[in-house]
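Researcher: Please translate sequence to structure tokens.
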Amino acid sequence: MRIVLVGPPGAGKGTQAAYLARNLSIPHISTGDLFRANISQGTDLGKQARAYMDAGRLVPDEVTIGMARDRMAQPDAAGGFLLDGFPRNVGQAEALDEMLRSESLKLDAVLDLEVPEDEVVKRIAGRRICRNDSAHVFHVTYNPPKAEGVCDACGGELYQRDDDTEETVRTRLEVYHTQTEPIIDYYRAQGLVVTISALGKVTDVTERAMEALEKSDEG
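Model: Translation complete:
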């Protein structure tokens, strides 16, 4: 299957993408991984991206599209892929359609993870990260540490990242509503959108997503 995963920040896209890609035996292609791989390997596109990022500017669509095109051309993506973070706007969605059309391919589904805005804020603003190891993540409501401000695993100090404050989260949501949400309408017009609730346990959301994708594939 060829799937695009969309949803607001805090919807759990990265987590769901990893589970779904494994279940469907297709590669998980995330924008973050594309950028990191191209920059670390020193590709032409990576150098272009780094120049924009170092200057504090947004990386142009054509650079992101170029990275996605190269990645989707790799052998492991021949039987399908799950895109996470791309396309980010309607222009990128149109470019993706054109790319696939040129190979006589098309998307099978666009999975829209739906989460109420207040829940997004609660999820992200409540996160606390260990200063010693960023893999140690807690949440003031859903996964609180035994002692406030102290990592259960190593005793390190827990802190809130600057981009996890409520104000920053609401700004990120505004960007999502303005730039990314319109692609849902774009794909809905093609009959590709499958919307599911991203509330509840991770495993429940994955199960919900798999069922919805199987139905869309049958349809």
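Researcher: Any highlights?
Model: The first strand starts at residue 2 and ends at 6.
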